[in-house]
Amino acid sequence: MAKTNVHYLCSECGWTGAKWFGKCPECGQWGTIDEFHEARPAAATRTSAARRASGTAGAATGIGADGRVSRTRSVAVAAGAARPITEIGTDDVTRIPTGFSEFDRVLGGGIVPGSVVLVAGEPGIGKSTLLLETAGNIARTHAAEGGRVLYVSGEESQGQVRLRASRINAVEPNLLLAATTDLATVLGLIEQERPTLAIVDSAQTIVSQDVDGISGGSTQVREVASALIDVAKTLDVPVLLVGHVTKDGSIAGPRTLEHLVDVVCQFEGDAETALRMLRAVKNRFGPTDEVGCFDMSGEGIEEVTDPAGLFLSTAAGAESTGNATGDTAGDAQADAPVEGTCVTFTLDGHRSLPIEIQSLVTNSVLPTPRRAVNGVDANRIAMLVAVLYRHGRVNLLSNDLYVSTIAGGLAKEPACDLAIVAALASAAKHAPIARTTCAIGEISLTGQVRPAPRLEYRLREAARLGFTTAVVPRLRKHMTIPGLAIVQVSSLKAALDALL
């Protein structure tokens, strides 16, 4: 049996030491240090490996008289192992499309051959469904050229995976299913089949017999990840890994797992809504500020290339989404402007998303007025109400305020301040804002409207969705957006006069 070297590892920051601590001396977290058993190969094995690599023996290879490899002596290597960077070719790598344009956007254009992608998310958020549907898309695309996709499940049986594949229309003859938790079996399947894509669900359920530790522990997760990365780089087979998360939302296992893989993607969403967001936390082959939108349904995962309809109500988005059905006057009345609503645009990566702010103002019968919010920052609402009273001459201090967004959208960045204040003032004064008007800008404590980052991206998206007027802060340079009238304001009072 191989000798083991016992030390202690922090699953939060990766600190290692020879002694156990209840509190990590590096990151200060409690209860994150576990015992780590690292297998150490025998001396004869290391000696034979060194001799095979160098083809010589003795002092030239760094092997001492006792047969062990010296750490301080050099080992001969093959000629040409190190080459000038100018002589290394720059052949374009052909990426593998996933069948989802949103997934490809997050990855930087598709899956790079030989890369290892870690997809993490909350339980039941749809990680396995997304990857199984991706496996079906790639298997369908590469069926003519004989390509195969290997899906290894350590959590479900083959029959259970087959049922889910039937539901989401991912049944393909060249999609291979395997149900095992043994790492050696997984590596053998990849080497035997040489698939176009390999998916392992999940990294915490695969166990290596060469190291100690329970399934999902720091020792096992690190060994499984290292072995899968090694076979992916050696055989040039891309591997998609499913990762579990802890109670606080971080990826389970040692932090070194995120350093080992090439791409780390977070699959996020609210369990009460069907909206799912895929964002890249780390990406060696593309940007890390791209976001993909998906919709979870009974038939599987559907990508949302234009999320405007998700975050806008019918009244706010009927005209902007091109509603030209020619219905009767009853529908025209339903599309009339509604008081207490205002649309703004937030940035999530490079994507500009429309968010509709809805507010309700009522007379309070409580000693302390109620402030109920959803999708916005409650502390920000308290500050904006005070600024609205002081600089906008709208007194809402004694009213019950209800502020919410549509479909679980988040309007927590400062650029949404102007739309929140406009929605509150509209509800208080019973003055609806035109549904083709949007407001973008940050409000300071002095009542000034401050610029928002990447304003041009937001305005171009507003013009594309059919908005005709945008109330924004003073621009530092002249900007012209076809089809969009830009109203520049410098104070909260001027912004309310333009909107109402």
From TrEMBL:
Q: Where does motif RadA KNRFG motif map?
A: 282-286
Which residue stretches, if any, does this entry annotate as coiled coil? Answer: none
Task: Please give one Pfam family short name.
Answer: Zn_ribbon_LapB
Record's function text: Plays a role in repairing double-strand DNA breaks, probably involving stabilizing or processing branched DNA or blocked replication forks.
Family label? Belongs to the RecA family. RadA subfamily.
- Which NCBIfam families is this protein grouped with? sms
User: What does the entry note on its domains?
Assistant: The middle region has homology to RecA with ATPase motifs including the RadA KNRFG motif, while the C-terminus is homologous to Lon protease.
What is the protein name given in its UniProt record? DNA repair protein RadA
Origin organism of this chain? Bifidobacterium callitrichos DSM 23973
